[in-house]
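Researcher: Let's try something more involved. This one mixes different molecule types, so please make sure each is placed in the same coordinate frame as the others.
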Amino acid sequence: MKKRLVSTILIAAMMLSMAACSQPAAPAETTAAAEAETTAAAAETEAPAETEAPAETEAPAETEAAVASAELEDSLVIYTTHPEEMLEVIADKFTEKTGVEVEFINLKGELADRVRSEKDNPQADIMFGGDTAIYKQLQAEGCYAPTTPSWADQVEDGCKDAEGYWYGTYRTPMVLFYNSEVMTAEEAPKDWADLVKPEYKDQIVTRDSLSSSMRSTVVSLIQNITANEGEEAAWNYIQALGENTKNYYNSGSMMFQAVGKGEAAISMAVINDVLKNRDENAMPLEMVIPTSGAVVITDCIAATNNAPHPNAAAAFVDFVGSEECQLMTANDFNRMPVYDSILTQCPEWMQTEFSTLPVDWNEVSANQSAWLQTWETDYLDAEKAVAAE
Amino acid sequence: MRKTDQSRTFLPLVWYGVMGFLLLGYILLPFVRTVLEALRAGDGYGLLNFHEFFSNPNQWTVAKNTILLGVSMVVTCGTIGILLALYMTFLCSRFKKLIHILLLSPMMVPGVITVIAFIQLYGESGVVTKAIQYALQLPSAPFVFQGYGAILFVITYTQYVYFYLNVYVALKYMDYAAIEAARSLGASWLQIFRDVIWPVIRPAVLTSVIITFASGVSAFSAPNLIGGGFKVLSTQIVRSKANNHMEMASVQVVVLFAISVTVMLLVRFYSRRFGSIAADRSQPAVPEGMRRGWLAVVGRIVVLIQILLILLPIAAIIYLSFVSTSSIMQDIFPRSFTLENYLTIFRKKRVLKPLINSLQMSVMAVAAGLVLTVPSAYLIVRRGGRAEGILRFALMLPSAMPASLVAINLINAFNQKSLFAFGQVLIGGYYIIPIAYVITALPMLLSSNEVAIQGLHPNLEEASRSLGADMGNTFVRIILPNIAPGIMAGGILIFIRMIGEYTMSALLYGVHNRPISISIITNMQEYNVGISLAYGVIVILICYLSLALIFRLDDRRFL
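Model: All components are placed in one shared frame. Result:
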């Protein structure tokens, strides 16, 4: 009987909790709570300011800060392609400065799709990471709202939108690298074109099509070859590259492990990942800047259109490009600043000139959906892993 | 008296209205939307996208891989599950209950965690792989844990449970005297299996074929994490969506649905040709002679290997969750112990949140699922008319839908303002995941509730009614308390299935509702393997506690 009683109570409790579910209309409960807090917080900050301001003259800095944070919303939501480790540091700094609580998720290669599919009901205030082509495409679809960060003028034209819908934040070179215990510098490939040589058969591993940087690299190479030799040549290259590729990895750590253990000698990755694994994990890796140029991804940022927290979003865009934040991400996370003026205070590799593969990002933007889908269905080799067994 | 009559027709009518609204809005119309999206061709509709799919040999390969995986899973799970059930019924004599529970336990570990555990054991630098490599002095890993073989290996060791449990239960109705008789007539074991045992377990086997095939073709975590280049529909759906080709994602999901439904109908058609064998249970005692001989020895070895394979990943997860991430990454046999992984989870709000989200969303899904299915099950069992038939069909419909289909349907239907969500956009919000959980839970909850209600004697209700209680009153005060244990047990089972859900979550999660499965993967990809494993241990712990609760509530469910 006692058991029965307990169960009945449980059922009753569950039915009561349904009250919350029967209104799927409301966004998260937390939002409502957050709003309530915002108004409360606003009321608190305003009240003392009004009463105290005429009586005492406080330090001007403090009042300024109070005014600024009163305008900002309480929280901020970021969708990103950057590792959460880095986001956490940026977010904590931002919270420290503004009092705005930051939530973020790393959506990797699915970032653009998420922002797009939530266009009518944006959950994120900030889209952070991904190349210019993606940002151009989503801007055309009306996903962004313009912002005017204080550092906008320092960014060169190709790396920002003329109307302020999006801005570059980091210049991220995608480079080749190899295991120096497995091959010598002479044997290693020098350029993207070398990767399809027969001697590198089964010597290459890469990320799969859900990696944001891998996607950028593939569409860049397709665009570059198409511009020089025509689209057929581009797909021939992708085909040949696929034939030489031993495996595709869903995770960066697994890919680096494969190279580190010499399962395959050659791979490609963004420079900061190569440096991290070479320096922090002491892996025997050598970097190769391709002779025709590294694919330089301009990692961008934008505030979403109709964002739930537009003021905090604008403040965050401003913060990410600020000298303070740019120097921190440069020195702690190997992210190369988007403007040159502070490069002297950055790690050495950022101060060395490296060549950039010419890519027309407008072309990429117009064609990438089709290219990526074709790459995915027709060129990423379905039989590979099976044959390997 | 008149009032009672009215309530008897009025209450069910209201209920059908509510259910009709929900089932139409959240299951049927979303599916129609997906089909329309798949048929979208320019400004109009046509078969263009399907033509694109079927004229591309690579898409064919993906479809073929999917079917191949489903069929091979039925074969491997069927073989292992049936063998284990036979052994446990006829040959096992010691520690029977313990072994039985152990054999059921893979069901308690969410797929994502199993896959990660298997990677830690059998992956390129896995403990088992390295141990073999060192023992045999091989220059490189003895096998590549990736692709078709690896997927099949992982899924087999989690999904054989359906076959095992169904066949085990069916064998309880076996007439042992018939086996004795066949034996004394000189029949071989093979003949006995074919002519005496098979007819009895056939319905259970066929049901298991349907479930296993469905879970095989819609498997996501294993192909996604260790698939390598082995592409299946469920993973390509996510990629098509990421590539801004929602129409192709919709085509792929419709093809997946077609595969799964076709096999289901084929099996149903086949099973209808045989009536079920109504065996009377005569003597439950197993004849002594069967427990000896080489069959028993072989059986014991198979069971031992199976238990080892089940316990090894769980042991590995628990062990590695106490090891620092850097040691997991670098040492082949990691040994530097720490509590850091757990402390991080409970100290950092951001890291703890996914766990809380998953708990909340699973409980919500179970609660909502029960509220929807208990009255429905009652009406279906007690009234059994045409309206109830339709209701039952609609509630069972999600069992034919692969998880990715449910998610894609919801995206197509609720990425804009919808009447059924009271004018809101649900995609990106918190409630979209619990809603998806509820939809997939409906069929299982309904059947479990039906069983509970069928066990209730109608006299109880008649007594209540004749004492003047109306239908609603009788339901709440008499029926619910009596069927509660059975219903709760079913609910907890759903809770266990949902807490580690990955397939739908991967398509639907957002910043407010990121579930633990997603965090497990993200942490693994971002070099925080230790935290992933600590999450895993916590989830496994929750699942086992829930299982213990099921046994207390309803001990006949599995034993």
